[in-house]
Structures are given as C-alpha cells and as structure tokens.
C-alpha cells in the first residue's frame, strides 16, 4: 500500500494540475486505504479531504497604508476563522519597494470557501478597506499538491515540476518504502503493530529533515534551492529581510532556541533567529546586514511602570543626578546649570537619586544650594518624602511666614516662623508636586522636543516599550496632546501602552465613566494604545510609601468608593492597575475585588497591583485566584536604608518577595516607577534584582530572594508584556514577534555584578529600524535631534550619569555640622535599628548626613 501511495504522489507532482488527475490520485489512495484493516478511518478521511482548497487574494496598496491594512487584517482574520471549514490563513507582505499584499486562506471544501467569499460579513469588511486599494481583489483558487512546496503569490519563482519530482523520488519515495521494510526486518515481532507504525513515521520525518537540512552540500542545495530559499515550514512567507544582524550572541529568550548567531527582520517583525548560514538565506537586494562582531543582543526592555508621558513633557527642564558618584559632583553640576539658566526658569532635580549613592553619604544642605545658585530658583526633590528649595525658589513660589501649611504637607520653619526651604510630605506628597507645578513650563513645541529627547535617552539604555502609569496633574485627553502628535507623525521610538489615572478626589467614578465612553482597551496601534485604568483608581486607596513615616491606615470609606469604580471597570471589560505598597492595604483591596468578582466574574480580565513591597504569601494566593499579576519596581534600591531604619534588617529580606511571586506562578513584570522617585535606568533595576543591593551598596536579600540573570531579564521583557495584554507579541526574539531588540555595551550574562549598573545600548532597534546607535555602530545612528531650549540641562548632562572619577568627600565637615538633640520632626531620630545593622548608615562618621534630617538641612 505504501508503494502505491508514493507512486501516486509522484504522478501528482509530475503531471500538470488537472482536477481529474487529482481525483484519480485521491481516488486510488481511497481504494487502497479501504482495503486496509489496520486503518479503517483512513478511507473516509482521505476522500473527505481530497477537495481542500486554498484561496489566494492579492491586494495592491501604497506603502503608507500598510499599517491600516494590517489593522484591518486583524479584524477580518478572526471573522473568517469562525466560518465552517476554515483551516488556517497566512499573510504574504510586500518586499522592499513592492506593494503587493497576498492573503492565503484554506478551507476544507469549495462549498465552504464559497460561503465565506459570498457572505455579507466579508462584503462589509472588504468595503471598509476598499478606499485604500489601488485595485480590487485578485483571487486564485488552488488545489494541487505542488502548493506544498511554495504558495502562489509568495513573490518567488515556483520550483520546477521536475525538481519537485526529484525531491519526491529521492526523499519521499525511498523513505516511505525502505523504512517500513527495514524496521519489519529488524523487529519482526512488532510487525503490523501500532508502535512499529509510529516508529516508521518518526524515521521518515527524521530522514526527510536531515536531507532538507543538508543545504551546505552543493548537489542537494542545487536540487532544492527554491525550497530552501523560503523560510522553514511554519515561518512567514517573506522573500527578503530588510535587516539582518549577524555574528552576535543573541539571547532570544525563546525556550526552543535560546541562543542564536543571527536574526532576520522584515515589516517590523522577526522572521527568524538562528545560525548565520540559515539567516543569510533571507538576504536579498536591499537587505541591510549588520555585523555584531560578537556583541551580546537581547530583546528590547519593557518598563511595566513608567511615567513616560508626563516625564517627557519636563525632561528638558530637569537636571538628572542618577548615578552621580558624589555630592561634590552633584553640586558642581547644579551650579553650572544655574549659571546657564535664564530668568525666570528654575533648576530642577526631580527624582532618580539617593544620598546613599554619594561618596559623602548625605544630602545637600540648604546653604549649599543657596551658595550654588544665589539668584536662580532651585527645586530638589528627594524620593517621596521632601523637597529642598533655595531662597530664590521660596520667593518664586511665594512661601512666606504668613503662608499656612497645605492639607497635603508641611512647610518647615525656623524659630521665627519663616520657611527654611524644606518641604515635608506629611501626610502625603501633594505639597511637593503642587510646588513643582508652580514652575515655568515649556511651550508645546519644546515639549515635543523634550519628549523625543527622553525617548532617545530610554533607547540609549535599551528600553523599547513602556506601560505608562499616568500620574498626578496628567489629565486625559488634555495632557496627551504631545504624545498623540508624535504618534501621528511616526516619531515615537518607544512603544507606549497607557493607563488613565483619575484626577478628581470623590469624582473618580465620573472620570472613568467618561473615559470608558471615549476609549476601548487596546485601541490604537502597536506604538500607542490604551491599556486601561490606574494606577490611581480612588484617592482613598492610596497608601503613600514614605518609609520615614508610619504606615498609613486607609480611611473607612475606601472599600465603597473602590467597589463602585472596579465594578464599572469590570462591567466594561477595562483592565486596571492599582498602587498598593503595604499588605494591610492589599488585603482590604482584595476583599473588594473578590466581592465584585462574585457579582461580575473577572474571567481573565487583566488586572494587577503595582509595587506590593510587603505583600504576604496569603495575598499572593488571592491575587493568583483572581487571575491578577504584580508589577514590581526597584523602589527599594533607593529606599531600602529607610525601610531598614524603621522596620529592621530582617523585615527587608523579602521586600518585595519577588522570588515567592514567581514560585507561586503569578504574572510578574518589572519596571522603575520613574521619574520622580527611582531612576528610569533599567540596569539599576536589574542590578538590584540580581545582587539584592541598594544603590548605596546595602545588602538586603539573600539567595532566596535574588534572581538569576536570565530570569530577571525575562521579567523585564516577556514578563512585562503580560501587563499590556501583549504576551506572545513582544519580549522574545522569535518568529512573528515585534522586531524590538538591543545590542549591549557589555555582556550582561558574564560581567561582574557591579558592572551591570553601567551597561547601556550600542544599538537599539524598534519596529525593525535603528533608533539609537553608539560606539562601533555609530554610523548607523539616525540624525541627531538638537536639544531645545539651548540652555536645557540635557545639553550638558544628557541623562543618566556616565562613569567619571568621583570627587573627594569632606566627611569631617559633615559631622561637625550636626548640632541637634531630640526630635528633628522628620523621623524622630529613631536610628538605633539602622545603626546596629550592617548597612552604610551604621557609619557614625557619615550617619547624620545620610539620614538628611530637617535640622541638619538648616
């Protein structure tokens, strides 16, 4: 029987495609299968499938309509899949300089195909796209077996039939006839059994694979070169890659293919990753080939919690102290910027730094700020707990002896009642951000430049995607004008999925009712899309994370307010995220979620907590039961010393319990929560996860809560994709995922831990295009974008600090300055826990400066 089957296949490939011949081939197979006692189902199956048909639909459209056409395909493909007899579909995208798109749809019978093509549903969908087409549908129906080799309209030459005949003769015919004979001779006792048939099948498949993989052998390559010029089975039918990166160490995070030498890219997606020889088969005229010369490449990093939209509007106004090794360097930078800043502009240092990173291990004093900038307003934000203003800034914001303390903070005063320049975030940080908002803003055209500069800085650090968590004073849609303009002009170099953050206490439900009428989750493109609600859902549920202060108790009415909002979001299938620091708050929030779930099941709706530093195992279980996730940020890398000062060294060992979250199989994504507290540098976060240390060097975690490097990286890529419902679409270098990847300045997997912090990108690719290049790859860099205004701090300090010799510290002077006794009003001088622990603040020489007490700042 096998001999007859193989013979029929030979006839089918050699002879011209005629319906009568195909019926003959399938009819003969049907008769032979009918005689088989071992395979009674084969007869009906073969006859039922003899008429499988493939419809090839070709469309001509201009390149600028490609994105909209892709979105349309995303609508029509799932609809087609619901029709009876649908077997699958493929899309053949145009090559470089071409405009022919082909869609291949397979049905089990011509009748089912006809039902789909003539349906009213398809007609309506085709009418939507018709205005973009240069001409109407061009269709072709194919049934012959030759289609197994190369699909029609794949924009390549079909293999000659005599070559198809030879492949069948040399591979299919002998393997299907010789293998059963040999196995029957070697295993006579198993002859005719099902296990032997399975062994035969495996041998045939393996033999065929070995022949087809032997493409380095010239005779075989000549014979099947048309076949091997195509992507291997299962890959997209694209003739030519637009970009190939080769001779590198490419960590794909694809578990089936973890390490590759090269990667091919076309149409903004990964074609394939593998050996140099294999990937070069995708090269053609116009392919850009980049020799990585052994550099390490990884998928693009994805920050699951970044305030990018708000941060971009102000980036060009801010002096960054991230990574600066000494306070002397920081003050020098501040003075130089003050000398360059015109009136009435301010010098702003807004987050991303900790006094523990400085060699001096202390904060600046108010007098030092006044000396560095006697006439230019200076605003220095320290984490979520305080801000320092020099005399010029106090005058600019109008804080005087008569100014009352606002509801959301405290103005520290001297013995005469005059403001000193220290603002304390007690009971929350409203005073800090309200004061910052009093400063001059950039005009709209410069906010565009500022946002583009911020994206370039993120690209420099290897970031290609971010989930924007909204933020205070960031109204929708008013404050999204700039990012929407950049999206419309195709000037975004970081993909953004954005959450909407309520802005009106006690009117939160009104905000979300309005927004659910305006938007649908997922609305937008792969570069800019709506992601849902949060991180603020109701103001009464905000548990402010100032570890210098006691844990706040949420008000009694929180549950009712949160329930109304969550009920509305679940009812409208809006994903949501919620800021939560303490386990006590999380318990009460989960009570609300479980109640809503009983009324309206979540049923796979993506939701998650942000932060969750002190979450317990019990509440992790509850999160998992509701299908939620946890987005973790490296806030403890900047606040770990303060946490230890209040709660003790033992309490910090699993704060947050990232390893336990992974063990319990809860989705975990990583991020920064930049820009106002932690740094936006993902390598600082990766260093924290891998080493378990703060930016000041304090060891917090033992091995039980430190992550292997590959695990930490996966959470920063594929892990974060879950939080924008894009799992399987980004985060790995594998077929059909978005072509976002990064070539690193150092090998993340082998450098000493301390060097992880200094890693950056030397080549960043987003959507298959180079958006940043440095060092050896500088010639590939896109044209630079001039920084505006010309006095911007970014002109002199373009982002995160780069290695420089630290300035000498003057520790002796610091000790002599501290004159207080008793309570300083910031944290009560309860320093005994920290002093007894093995952390930097235990150093008596530097201790008082480290804690940055308000009395010291006088």
Automatic annotation (TrEMBL):
Gene3D superfamilies per record: 3.10.310.70, 3.30.70.100, Metal-dependent hydrolases, Urease, subunit C, domain 1
Domain ABM: start-end pairs: 53-126
Record-linked InterPro entries: ABM_dom, Amidohydro_3, Dimeric_a/b-barrel, Metal-dep_hydrolase_composite, Metal_Hydrolase, YtcJ-like
Any Pfam family the entry gives: Amidohydro_3
The EC number(s) this enzyme carries: 3.5.1.91
GO function terms (MF aspect): hydrolase activity, acting on carbon-nitrogen (but not peptide) bonds
Residue intervals of the Amidohydrolase domain: 288-772
Keywords carried by this UniProt record: Hydrolase
Superkingdom of origin organism: Bacteria
Protein name listed in UniProt: N-substituted formamide deformylase
Gene of this entry: nfdA_3
């Amino acid at each position: 029987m096998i001999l007859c089957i193989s013979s029929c296949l030979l006839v089918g490939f050699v002879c011209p495609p005629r319906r009568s011949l195909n019926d003959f081939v399938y009819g003969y197979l049907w008769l032979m299968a009918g005689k088989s006692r071992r395979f009674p189902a084969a007869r009906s199956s073969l006859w039922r499938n003899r008429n499988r048909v493939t419809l090839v639909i070709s469309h001509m459209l201009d390149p600028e309509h490609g994105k909209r056409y892709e979105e349309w395909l995303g609508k029509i493909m799932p609809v087609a899949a619901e029709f009876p007899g649908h077997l699958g579909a493929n899309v053949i995208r145009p090559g470089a300089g071409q405009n022919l798109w082909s869609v291949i749809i397979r049905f089990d019978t011509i009748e089912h195909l006809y039902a789909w093509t003539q349906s009213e549903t398809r007609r309506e969908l085709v009418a939507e796209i018709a205005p973009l087409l240069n001409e109407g549908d061009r269709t072709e129906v194919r049934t012959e077996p030759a289609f197994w080799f190369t699909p029609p309209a794949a924009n390549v030459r079909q293999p000659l039939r005599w070559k198809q005949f030879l492949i069948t003769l040399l591979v299919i015919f002998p393997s299907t006839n010789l293998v059963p004979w040999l196995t029957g001779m070697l295993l006579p006792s198993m002859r005719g059994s099902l296990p032997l048939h399975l062994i035969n099948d495996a041998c045939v498949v393996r033999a065929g694979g070995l022949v087809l993989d032997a493409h380095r052998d010239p005779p075989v390559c000549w014979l099947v070169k048309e076949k091997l010029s195509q992507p291997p089975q299962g890959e997209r039918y694209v003739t030519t890659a637009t970009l190939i990166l080769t001779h590198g160490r490419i960590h794909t995070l694809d578990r089936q293919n973890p390490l590759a030498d090269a990667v091919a890219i076309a149409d903004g997606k990964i074609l394939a990753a593998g050996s140099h020889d294999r990937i070069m088969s995708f090269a053609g005229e116009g392919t850009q080939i980049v020799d990585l010369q052994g550099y390490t490449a990884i998928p693009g990093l994805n920050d699951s919690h970044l305030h990018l939209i708000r941060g971009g509007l102000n980036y060009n106004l801010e002096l960054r102290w991230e990574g600066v090794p000494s306070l002397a360097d920081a003050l020098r930078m501040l003075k130089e910027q003050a000398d360059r800043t015109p009136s009435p502009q301010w010098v702003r240092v807004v987050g991303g730094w900790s006094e523990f990173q400085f060699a001096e291990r202390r904060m600046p004093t108010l007098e030092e700020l006044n000396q560095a900038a006697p006439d230019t307003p200076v605003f220095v934000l320290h984490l979520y707990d305080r801000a320092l203003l020099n005399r010029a800034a106090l005058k600019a914001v109008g804080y005087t002896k008569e100014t009352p303390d606002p509801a959301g903070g405290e103005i520290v005063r001297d013995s005469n009642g005059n403001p000193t320049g220290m603002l304390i975030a007690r009971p929350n940080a409203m005073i800090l951000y309200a004061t910052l908002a009093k400063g001059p803003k950039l005009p709209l055209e410069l906010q565009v430049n500022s946002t583009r500069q911020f994206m370039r800085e993120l690209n420099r650090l290897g970031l290609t995607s971010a989930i924007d968590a909204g933020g205070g004073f960031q109204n929708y849609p008013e404050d999204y004008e700039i990012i929407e303009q950049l999206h419309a002009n195709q000037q975004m170099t970081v993909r953004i999925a954005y959450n909407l953050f309520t802005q009106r206490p006690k009117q939160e439900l009104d905000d979300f009712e309005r927004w659910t009428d305006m938007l649908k989750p997922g609305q937008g493109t792969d570069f800019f899309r709506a992601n849902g609600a949060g991180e603020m859902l109701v103001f009464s549920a905000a548990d402010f994370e100032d570890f210098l202060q006691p844990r706040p108790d949420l008000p009694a009415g929180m549950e009712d307010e949160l329930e109304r909002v969550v009920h509305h979001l679940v009812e409208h299938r809006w994903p949501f995220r919620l800021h939560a620091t303490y386990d006590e708050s999380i318990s009460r929030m989960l009570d609300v979620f479980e109640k809503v779930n009983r009324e309206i099941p979540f049923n796979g709706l993506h939701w998650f907590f942000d932060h969750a530093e002190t979450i317990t195992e019990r509440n992790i279980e509850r999160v998992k039961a509701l299908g939620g996730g946890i987005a973790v940020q490296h806030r403890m890398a900047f606040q770990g010393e303060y946490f230890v000062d209040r709660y003790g060294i033992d309490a910090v060992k699993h704060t947050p319990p990232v390893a336990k979250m992974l063990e319990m199989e809860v989705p975990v994504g990583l991020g920064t929560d930049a820009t106002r507290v932690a740094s936006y540098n993902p390598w600082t976060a990766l260093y924290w996860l891998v080493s378990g240390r703060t930016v000041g060097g304090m060891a917090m975690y033992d091995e039980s809560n430190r992550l292997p490097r590959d695990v930490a990286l996966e959470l920063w890529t594929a892990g974060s994709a879950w939080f924008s419902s894009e799992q399987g679409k980004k985060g790995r270098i594998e077929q059909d995922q978005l072509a976002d990847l990064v070539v690193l300045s150092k090998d993340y997997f082998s450098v000493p831990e301390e060097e992880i912090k200094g890693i950056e990108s030397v080549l960043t690719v987003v959507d298959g295009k180079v958006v940043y290049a440095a060092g050896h790859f500088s010639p590939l860099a896109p044209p630079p974008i001039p920084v505006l205004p010309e006095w911007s701090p970014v002109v002199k300090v373009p982002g995160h600090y780069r290695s420089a010799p630290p300035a000498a510290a003057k520790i002796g002077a610091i000790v002599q300055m501290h004159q207080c006794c008793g309570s300083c009003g910031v944290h009560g001088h309860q320093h005994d826990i920290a002093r007894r622990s093995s952390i930097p603040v235990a150093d008596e020489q530097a201790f008082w400066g480290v804690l940055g007490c308000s009395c010291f700042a006088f």
